[in-house]
Amino acid sequence: MLRSFVALPWLAALVLQAILVGVLLAKRMWRKFPLFATYAGLNLALGIGSYVIFRTGSPFAYFVAYWVKEAIGLSLGLAVVYEVFSHLFRPYPGLRKLAALVFQGAVVLLVILGCIVVYAQPLGEHTRIVAAFYIVEEAARILEVGLLLSLFLFASAFGLHWRQYVFGIAVGLGIFVTVELVAVTMRVQFGITANPVFNIVRTISFNSSLIIWISYLLAPELATSPSELPKRAQLEQWNRAVMELIYQ
Fold first, then answer.
1. Residues 100-155: pLDDT tens digits?
2. 43-64 b/e with 16+ CB inside 10 Å = b?
């Protein structure tokens, strides 16, 4: 009964991922967002493989498949954050250089913060290797959430215009990794007893992100409005100023 209940949102996620991949292919979005397209495609393939193993394979085979999928998902999630960052700052090389320096500093600080957080909290997991895996995932989610928050704050500070597709990808990823961070933290705290709630919550949050991505990618991207032109002129001035400062 429990396996069937867990399987329902999982199957919904696979259907939504297939729709997302179909939209990316139909609109040839792999040319504009190759990392996000890779993230979506591999998530779908690994999700199908994990589901088949979950239904028919051994617990150990599923354990291996689950953590392979998580490791690839975490790595590509960080790559998608970088891709969003690149698209947002592409017209302004000076601001992009400044933001890259800020991001590098943020990565170092967030890694240190993640290590402190996961070291200081008690563990609810009895198996050391499982506890280690979840601690690494928690630290990676802290890094992802921190980078996305830094990206939104930096864009707000400079008044950068978010293109519709880029904003949709960032918002969807932000919702997923934030809920994922909370869920993983609870899993680390309470151990295996939190597994049913952990699996359902993270699947629902991922499904929500998939719906956001599909909705934004299906909608036509709006052209720059005349009201944004003064802001763009100011950004060009800031970009030139930063370029002169960097290359003096």
1. 776 677 667 766 766 676 566 555 555 666 766 777 787 788 888 888 887 888 77
2. bbebbeebbebbeeeeeeebee
Long-range contacts of 131-134 (CB under 8 A, 24+ apart): 131/188, 133/67, 133/70, 134/184, 134/187, 134/188
- Which domains, and CATH codes, for the chain? 11-246 (1.20.1070)
3-state secondary structure 160-211: CCCCHHHHHHHHHHHHHHHHHHHHHHHHHHHHHHHHHHHHHHHHHHHHHHHH
Q: 3-state class of 124 per DSSP?
A: coil
pLDDT above 70: residue 212: yes
pLDDT band (50, 70, 90) for residue 185: confident
